[in-house]
Amino acid sequence: MITLFVVSCKNSRKKDLITLPVQTFLSGGLEREYMLYIPQSAEKNSPLVFMLHGLGSTHTIIMNYSQMNQVADKHGFVVCYPQGIRGAENTRHTKKGTPFWNVGYETHKNETVDDVSFIKSLAIYLQQEYNLDPEKTFCAGMSNGGDMSYLLGCEAPDIFKAIAPITGCMMGWIYESCNKNDPVPVFQVH
Predict the structure, then answer these.
(1) Which domain holds residue 105?
(2) Res. 116: pLDDT tops 60
């Protein structure tokens, strides 16, 4: 995950954004979006890395900013870029339609989407569909995506074997909800 930080500091402002086909996955009665990058170097039982965007961002933006596809090419892992839900209402900090991960912010207290279930279910589906190693599934995220990484590390240690939050924070209630008997390695970049 150190490579992630170093690579993301490279020039990420390109005129043309790289895109991948947007795929959908049904979760909680909602059709959710994600993009999947499978490098030619990937083999059966390759690792799976989830890369989560920040508040107000998108899967396309974090894919281009993080440059994880290039790292995946070099190291042979698959990258999933899920899309957060768009807020249903204006809040103090965000406008209606702003993408986010539901990690329990006070401003999103009326949102009921279960992003933990979405990402867990998507991880299991991808592991099975593409023969990816369930013991090598990881999550990294920027800002609100980093917060979501912490939440997944606490609530889904059976799925995510390590997390790498970038400029994210572990809120008190997330820390309190963690199973102290099932710790997950964390690489924190702030």
Answers:
(1) 2-12+41-177
(2) yes
